[in-house]
Every structure is written in C-alpha cells, then in structure tokens.
Specification:
The chain starts with a helix and ends with a helix. The protein is mainly α. It has one domain (2-96). Helices cover 65% and strands 0% of the residues. The chain is built from five helices and no strands.
C-alpha cells in the first residue's frame, strides 16, 4: 500500500485526470475504486455495515484517503485471506496506473 501512496502522493491534478494505461478510467477514478474496496474490506473485517467513502472534489486528497482506509483495515485485524485480497487489489491498481 505504501508503494502506491508514494507513487501517487506527489501527482498534480493533470496526472490524476489522465486515463490509466491499462483501463479506460481516469487514474483518480481507478484509485477511488480501490479506496472504496479497501474500506469495504475493513467494514467487513469489523463486522460493520459498508459505507460509501466520500468522493472529494480535490483528487489530491486521494493519497490521504488511501492511507486512512489502509490504516482502518489493519486496525480491524483482518484475516490473512482479506489481507491477501487487499494486497492483490493494490497490486492490480498499481499495474493499471
């Protein structure tokens, strides 16, 4: 997760709005989708209902949102299977960017 945050943490708005190389989605949408997926995994691990992560107006906040949901997931004490799924989703997102 930290590798992805370091990869995108310095991006400016133009880079976020560009289309990801392995997808037809803007990079910001691809990372937001990952953020929501990680948040869902954290909610499931906590036994809580899933909640929609707010899509902020400023894409520059996406790296911070990713840090927060990753910390939430780790704090929930997820199973190894859940951590493996999260790791796979992060790797797929990095590859798509």
């Amino acid at each position: 997760m930290e590798l992805l945050v370091r990869q995108v943490g310095h991006w400016q708005q133009g880079r976020w709005s560009g289309v990801a190389s392995a997808s037809e989605l803007p990079r910001a949408d691809l990372v937001y989708r990952l953020i929501q997926d990680i948040a869902d995994l954290a909610a499931d691990a906590e036994g809580q209902p899933r909640r929609v992560v707010p899509r902020l107006d400023n894409d520059l906040a996406l790296a911070d949102q990713l840090r927060v949901v990753a910390a939430d997931l780790l704090a929930a004490g997820p199973s190894d299977d859940v951590l493996a799924r999260a790791t796979a989703e992060v790797a797929a997102t990095r590859a798509a960017l």
